[in-house]
Design brief:
Helix content: 10-25%
Strand content: 25-35%
Strand order of the largest sheet: 1-7-6-10-9-8-12
Bound molecules: flavin-adenine dinucleotide, FE2/S2 (inorganic) cluster
Largest sheet: 7 strands, mixed, barrel
Shape: globular
Structural class: alpha+beta
Number of helices: 12
Length: 588
């Protein structure tokens, strides 16, 4: 007979962690007497970060006394008490390898349903003073699980837990946790998981991604945890010299460089929308500048074209403009990126502002080359005709598509610009204008431009009925950070060298942030070094399970400690558990 041993609750509070403040509800205390279990929470309970925790599907976290005994032995601890694993219900019985997703249990006056295993998050490790805990819970197959509250009612320690019905497919919590996080999953397991209606929507999305990604059940990388795993592996390792075969002005400030293999062999095809990372060498023996540029030419042409906007005072763009000549070489890492045109037959919106046109132009080339019958909306914002690169090229490509619609917005047209010919609308391509366009709501949108522009446009697209998940964006710089629960009001600083004595280890280049830093063993991982430099980062478990920190390694090699639970996609690394073993260039 399974029994509810303890009911534990706790409201979110701020705790100090690594010089920061974290808001978390992982500190729970045991309460006596009856408590109401409600749709979102047990009375007196709360979560600090509702993006990662809480909600209807994760209302009650359950952990087993048997697992407490296991961890006491494993961690050599005798101080573990109910609630220490952040759980609301400490239970006798209900082992992770017996309880199945969709099982229903009655406890006291309430009815519960099992929805998913525990979220892999660093906060359980923070609570226990065991930083590796998130990974250990997965690798030892003792995650614990969440209940959804089907019927609200009172619960109390000591009550019997009565199984009311079994979930379909008989898939245990331990099994499904392994399907998502551990290597060796089979397609059949993923399909079974998807047949369980009680599985939370978040986990269903991960399972669908696993199923859709070709080879996801076999090769390295985990499409259930990151889109990075869906891109093909890079075509070559590190940097290789490419020859500049053409330098072409495209507008007042944008110029293109065509690049070819030194021996004339065709270069590997990139996906339409991917980018190339190049090294630009300034004078004076200083480290090279590393910058990324979206490929703007026709994918599969055997050569590459990048198009660079000369920024005022921009170091690399200025050097390229001043120096790049036909016959010179440019060191380039293989094309990468997850912003690429997906196959499909539905409508597609290619939306850009300024030099953000480059990746969507490659997509337009791909559609034109395929003679696509898709409905294609080309929406572009420029200042005027002098700052409108690729105008004739786009027009030619769009003219060849049977279902193309074009809107070009000039924010400040000059007297030389012809309305109806050079541009369709005077004024900015603003969110307000997007709403009135009548865009098809089933379209896939590919959006590139300044960060603020993309945020406003995305909201306008969603307001106009398009799905947020189908609005794909490319950022020409450091991406947004994801630091769950961290609330410290750190002033937003531009990336910088870390405080303290300079390291003596191999150089670490953060390509998007334009920063190179010598490695210092004082930092436990590349993630910690990035944090010390205020380079924007994304993470959740910090111990090699969740793949939130996965990113492209353009060159170099790393050692892991601990080893990732499942390896990242080929050409990627998990920075939370990696240290450089030689000079590295990261897409960060
Ligand atoms: C995936 C990806 C794709 C990209 N694709 C493209 C592309 O297709 N085309 C393109 O042009 N760029 C693209 N970029 C951006 C590109 O990588 C560079 O960031 C850009 O060229 C600026 O580099 P820079 O060295 O010239 O400028 P930096 O020297 O790095 O300067 C960055 C910014 O600071 C400003 N700045 C620098 N010094 C000063 C100063 N003293 N005073 C005031 N302001 C200053 C510059 O104007 C510039 O805007 C892409 C970036 C990424 C990550
Ligand atoms: S943060 Fe989870 S794998 Fe790195």
């Amino acid at each position: 007979m399974a029994t509810l041993i303890a009911v534990n609750v706790g409201l979110p509070k701020d705790v100090a962690w690594r010089g920061k403040r974290v808001r978390t509800g992982v500190w729970k205390h045991t309460v006596s007497g009856p408590r109401m279990a409600r749709r979102l929470n047990i009375d007196g309970d709360g979560q600090g970060d509702l993006d990662g925790h809480g909600g209807e599907q994760r209302a009650v976290l359950v952990y087993q006394s048997e697992s407490y005994r296991f961890w006491e032995r494993e961690l050599g601890r005798d101080d573990l008490r109910p609630g220490h694993f952040g759980e609301n219900f400490t239970v006798d019985g209900l082992a992770d390898d017996e309880v199945c997703i969709g099982d229903r249990y009655r406890i006291g006056g309430a009815l519960f349903e099992v929805t998913q295993p525990r979220v892999t998050c660093y906060r359980v490790g923070l609570r226990l003073g065991e930083p590796q805990m998130a990974a250990l819970l997965v690798s030892r197959r003792r995650p614990g699980f969440y209940f959804r509250v089907i019927e609200e009612g009172e619960v109390e320690a000591g009550q019997e837990i009565v199984k009311v019905s079994s979930g379909p497919e008989g898939m245990t919590v331990a099994e499904i946790d392994g399907v998502l996080y551990l290597p060796g999953r089979t397609r059949e397991q993923v399909e079974r998981a998807l047949r369980i209606p009680a599985l939370s929507p978040g986990w269903q999305g991960s399972m669908r991604a696993l199923l859709e990604a070709e080879g996801a059940t076999a090769g390295p990388g985990n499409a259930g945890l990151t889109v990075a795993a869906t891109a093909p592996p890079p075509a070559w390792q590190g940097f290789r010299p490419l020859t500049i075969t053409r330098v072409q002005p495209e507008s007042r400030s944008v110029f293109s460089l065509s690049l070819a293999d030194a021996d004339g062999a065709p270069l590997p095809a990139a996906l339409p929308g991917q980018f190339l990372t190049v090294k630009v060498q300034p004078d004076g023996g200083v480290p090279p500048l590393i910058r990324s540029y979206s490929l703007s030419g026709e994918p599969g042409a055997g050569t590459y074209r990048i198009s660079v906007k000369q920024e005022p005072h921009g170091a690399a763009s200025g050097l390229l403009r001043a120096r790049a000549r036909v016959g010179d070489t440019l060191d380039a890492a293989a094309p990468r990126g997850t912003f690429y045109l997906a196959d499909g037959a539905g409508p597609v919106v290619l939306l850009s502002a300024g030099v953000g046109v480059t990746p969507v132009l490659a997509m337009l080339h791909a559609l034109a080359r395929a003679g696509s019958a898709r409905q294609v909306w080309w929406l572009h914002g420029a200042r005027n005709g002098t700052e409108h690169p690729f105008a004739a090229e786009c027009r030619r490509l769009l003219d060849g598509l049977p279902h193309a619609r074009i809107r070009v917005y000039y924010s400040r047209p000059t007297s030389a610009d012809r309305a109806g010919t050079d541009y369709t609308d005077a004024g900015r391509l603003s969110p307000e204008r997007i709403s009135g366009l009548g865009l098809p709501t089933d379209a896939d949108v590919y959006l590139c431009g300044p960060v603020g522009f993309m945020a406003g446009v995305t909201d306008a697209l969603v307001d106009a009925g398009l799905r947020r998940s189908r609005v794909h964006t490319e950022v020409f710089g450091a991406g947004a950070s994801l630091t769950p629960g961290v609330t410290s009001a750190v002033p937003a600083r531009a990336p910088h060298q870390p405080a303290g004595a300079a390291g003596t280890g191999p150089p670490v280049s953060f390509a998007r942030s334009g920063l190179t830093v010598p490695w210092n063993d004082d930092h436990g991982s590349l993630l910690e070094l990035a944090e010390a430099c205020d380079v924007p980062v994304r993470w959740s478990c910090r111990t090699g399970v969740c793949h939130t920190c996965e990113l492209a390694l353009m060159s170099g090699a790393v050692d892991y400690s601990p080893d990732p639970v499942e390896p990242p996609a080929e050409g990627d690394i998990l920075i939370c558990c990696a240290r450089p073993s030689e000079a590295v260039v990261l897409d960060l």
